[in-house]
Amino acid sequence: MTNITDPKYNRIYEESGKIISTVIHRTSFAESDLLELFSLVVDGFDKRIRSASGPSSVGWRDLGDLENMLSKAYFQCVDVTTLMHDISAITFLEEIKLFDVNQIIEISIRLFRHQYPDMNVSVDLGSSRMINTNRCILILCLIKTLTYAIALKAKSFQIKTNNNQDTPVIVIEISNIQKTIDHSSDEIDFVESMLSYANLKFSYTVKNETLCMLFETV
């Protein structure tokens, strides 16, 4: 059983807390927009009902405006719900158990993009592969590697997976690096020290301005 009071997990709590606070702060703006949209819809219906002397049809223009507002509200609801689900994945330290690695990567990228919306991540996911891991720790390690790509001013970075049991679970390639790689950076140190608690091992190579990181099963 995971002992959540173990001091070795302090860095995990610190990193997850930073991400959660950032996402919740940004989500609050989306919720405000959502409330405003629903308020406009309700006001529109209220004005029409008050001004009508009896049954009346809704004009095409009014109907189109209503459809646009409800459609926008629907997709904002989906975004907020998805983010709340993603946050739950890094809120608690679960036991090591079977997880779909592709789903973990998708959650990691969504949380990363919420903090860095202008960053483009190339993703090449293979067939679904179940691995025994700690989902929270693996997500945080993936976000750390993506954040490191920003620090290196990389022009491109890609995450790849595969379902071959004899090859690495996850391959992360950070290409066209514009800064010198610091092998003692906080990001590399975090992944090296924490990934073992997710039942995975970490290694990396540097060649021709490309940093290649491997997450492999133990």
Structure description:
This protein has 218 residues and is an alpha+beta fold. The chain contains five helices and seven strands, in the order H-H-E-H-E-E-H-E-E-H-E-E. It folds into two domains: 82 residues; 121 residues, Histidine kinase-like ATPase, C-terminal domain (Heat Shock Protein 90, 2-Layer Sandwich), CATH 3.30.565.10. Strand 4 and strand 5 form a beta hairpin. It is elongated and about 75 Å long.
CATH topology of the largest domain: Heat Shock Protein 90
Number of domains: 2
State Rg. 22 Å
The CATH class of the largest domain, by name, is Alpha Beta
Uncertain runs with pLDDT below 50, 5 residues or more?
Answer: none
Q: If strands are numbered along the chain, what order do they take across the biggest sheet? A: 2-4-5-7-6
Can you give the mean pLDDT?
Answer: 82
CATH superfamily of the largest domain: Histidine kinase-like ATPase, C-terminal domain
Query: What fraction strand?
Result: 15-25%
Largest sheet: 5 strands, mixed
Computed structural class: alpha+beta
Query: What is the helix tally?
Result: 5
Number of strands: 7
CATH architecture annotation of the largest domain: 2-Layer Sandwich
- Tell the overall outline: elongated
H and E string: HHEHEEHEEHEE
Overall helicity: 40-55%
Q: Give the termini distance in whole angstroms.
A: 19 Å
